[in-house]
Design a protein that fits this description.
Layout (H helix, E strand, L loop, with lengths): L9 H21 L17 H23 L5
Length: 75
């Protein structure tokens, strides 16, 4: 019987989970800032957190996920 080898190892899944958590955190940071009344403008929608920080966290999360897929543990 041939031994079955998995494509990813435990380390890859841990890194992937960290990347997915970063992506989720970025989308949580992006949420909110709207107004219940469409006649009232809420300038909070253009805050640093929603315009700069959240998209950066999401892109970092995607980079971490790509790293977890492309990294190899073979020694």
């Amino acid at each position: 019987m041939a031994s079955k080898k998995f494509l990813f190892e435990k380390r890859n899944y841990k890194i992937l989970a960290i990347g997915l958590a970063c992506i989720a955190l970025g989308f949580i940071l992006m949420a909110g800032g709207g107004s219940d009344d469409p006649q009232i403008f809420n300038p909070e929608i253009f805050s640093f957190r929603r315009i700069r920080l959240a998209p950066t966290v999401v892109l970092i999360g995607f980079g971490i996920c790509a790293f977890s897929i492309l990294t190899s543990n073979s020694k």
